[in-house]
Amino acid sequence: MEKRIRVVVAKPGLDGHDRGAKVVARALRDAGMEVIYTGLRQTPEAIYQTCIQEDADVLCLSSLSGAHDYLFPKVAEIFKQNGVNDVLILGGGIVPEEDIGELKDAGIEEIFGPGTRTDYIVKYIETHLKKAI
């Protein structure tokens, strides 16, 4: 049996809007990936622990609240501090263009904004995995 890509979809911080995260989670599931959705209002530490416990290949962070510039780098930093460098970390939501460079410098591999086609996200994950599946 072939191993499926394991993706954790997480909503860090106090953002209470998760429609986009659920749409992405469904699309990834429909593409054959195993998806674990953490639910709303997760701490960076809890997101990291979920990824470790679930042996995630990919982490998709979503923020619509404007806290992406703090929360996304905080999550990536926890991975770095613990020597975990084989999880593909992606971000999405309402992220201004001028913030994307800093987020990528912090360890977020790619940012997907509103209107991004879900098939593009699927293809991106399939071609940029850090772990052998």
From TrEMBL:
Keywords: Cobalamin, Cobalt, Isomerase, Metal-binding
UniProt organism field: Desulfomonile tiedjei (strain ATCC 49306 / DSM 6799 / DCB-1)
Annotated Pfam families: B12-binding
Residues annotated as domain B12-binding: 4-132
An example molecular function term from Gene Ontology annotations: isomerase activity
Name of the protein this chain belongs to: Methylmalonyl-CoA mutase family protein
Cofactor annotation: adenosylcob(III)alamin
CDD domains noted in UniProt: MM_CoA_mut_B12_BD
UniProt cross-references to PROSITE patterns, sorted A to Z: B12_BINDING
Organism superkingdom: Bacteria
Gene3D superfamilies in the cross-refs: Cobalamin-binding domain (3.40.50.280)
